[in-house]
Here is the input.
Amino acid sequence: MKKLFTTLLASVMCLAALTACGNKGTKDVLVVGTNAAFPPFEYVGDDGQPDGFDIALIKAIGEKLGMEIEVQDMEFESLVTAIGSKIDAAIAGMTIDEERLKSVDFSEPYYDAIQYVIVLKDSEIKGADDLKNKTIGVQLATTGNYIADEIEGATVKSYNKGVDAVNDLINGRVDCVIIDKNPAMVFTEKFADKLTAIDGAEFDFETEQYAIALPKGSDMVEKVNQALADLKEDGTFDALVAQYIEEAE
Ligand code: ARG
Here is the structure.
């Protein structure tokens, strides 16, 4: 009898444990798209999973909202159109811009950026006029791509990954690469003997602001903004900047 009771008790405890697990499973999931080829904001970590500032930030936001974050790595180009269908949001060092605002809403900005110009160390490119008629590498469908498209006489080569543009710069297939400041610094650092990165201010590029993209009219915008504000207030945001961004500089 006692034995039977113990067995019964064990099964009941098992069931309780299962239910506890089940509850966790029913926690709301926010599927967040990124393009993990943009260090230090997102990259594939040693364990093969997306990591970086943006990933840590969205997970912290998920914690504040009591939501489970599922990160989906995809092409940068596909992110905006996937919002509202394949993904619930995107965090990808994405600059708020007019064109994107036609199809998505953005959270409050969380980071200020500007495009940088990566060149070979002995390059003659120093300012805006020097970019004319050059072959310029960019990451497809990014603000760097949009800037390059406007440069007089320039031939623009677009790549799915910024690092591929940088490799073509080293191989002499492009004259420079236009890409956001922080990734520019990470890529330049990797090939410090060959490359140097020039501040976009020298080329009169405008500052940009990164924000989280959400479906148009979504009530998540306010919730995400509140979570962002809370993370700034409690010091988590600054700790992530120190851990992921300042560390990479
Ligand atoms: N800030 C630029 C833009 O919004 C580039 C972002 C690229 N991000 C990435 N994860 N690949 O267009």
Notes: The longest strand covers residues 29-34. The CA atoms of residues 44 and 50 lie 4 Å apart.
